[in-house]
Amino acid sequence: xxxxxxxxxxxxxxxxxxxxxxxxxxxxxxxxxxxxxxxxxxxxxxxxxxxxxxxxxxxxxxxxxxxxxxxxxxxxxxxxxxxxxxxxxxxxxxxxxxxxxxxxxxxxxxxxxxxxxxxxxxxxxxxxxxxxxxxxxxxxxxxxxxxxxxxxxxxxxxxxxxxxxxxxxxxxxxxxxxxxxxxxxxxxxxxxxxxxxxxxxxxxxxxxxxxxxxxxxxxxxxxxxxxxxxxxxxxxxxxxxxxxxxxxxxxxxxxxxxxxxxxxxxxxxxxxxxxxxxxxxxxxxxxxxxxxxxxxxxxxxxxxxxxxxxxxxxxxxxxxxxxxxxxxxxxxxxxxxxxxxxxxxxxxxxxxxxxxxxxxxxxxxxxxxxxxxxxxxxxxxxxxxxxxxxxxxxxxxxxxx
Length: 401
Description:
This protein is α+β, with helices and mostly antiparallel strands. The protein contains nine helices and 28 strands. Strands 15, 16, 17, 18, 19, 20, 21, 22 and 23 form a nine-stranded antiparallel sheet that branches.
């Protein structure tokens, strides 16, 4: 039996937001269902922007076309996902959408293609599509960034975005997913579903937009030097093959590590790269016979690293803190709605307890609604916070009333 789209709506000072979710199995019908729910809540007014998160079970072209035809947003972006959720629902193999109509803000969608071949050129292409560069009547410049993280080098890509925007934009978002298959991920630009690309939804405002980023992981090993690494392939730590390092840590902590089936161990023992203001997390995905370990993101050569540990409670506390950080940045303005991103590894590790983290975000937002998805890495670039591309990290972007 299909579940119809559920809705939640906020209306303040001319700003209207709607969060909708569907588990409808048919892609075209799911898109229409989402779009019709948005149109109903917007009293047939055209949304300024719609953001779609959709499971890999769907035909993306059909769900995007169904959504576009039903509510005709001025800007439509999104990505494939690995678990979808809102403030009132959670599922895998589903789709959810966030819609906004805000006369006091300006929204614009742009895209950068060819991440694998030239991430700098892709960043330049995306930035060239931003309308708020240079002299702008808007005080606050923010962009939602959704990238095909399987194309690699997302951290470098975010750095290039910062360079080309001269640090005048704040970024939040994540890497597209495919239900933890790690095969092919897509970003959405209008009714197109595209690989090897990144999309942005530019959000210009004279009210502040809050971005919070936290993780609940703590060091569980002594510091080690990354002595050999190529991209996301970590060969050795302290000149010892990486799988041997993990095996030694498993023995010392009473855990089981099987190089042939390492994922259960990896989800509980990620690697933290030391940064000036904490640790950037990297999720190990697989082990090879030569002792190397492949990660979800690049591991920089020469960095100092530790094996990290956490709990479901720590993850929930971190998500709540990230949300509170973002809300505080709004100053005197109340939160209207939010976008929330967390790692698929967090959901796989915590299982049903992932709902505790979603509830923590809901409570921290109060009456404001949110939508989001589990991603392959999270993007955050904001003053005074961790910067760049992360794993196993909660990222919250809060829009003001």
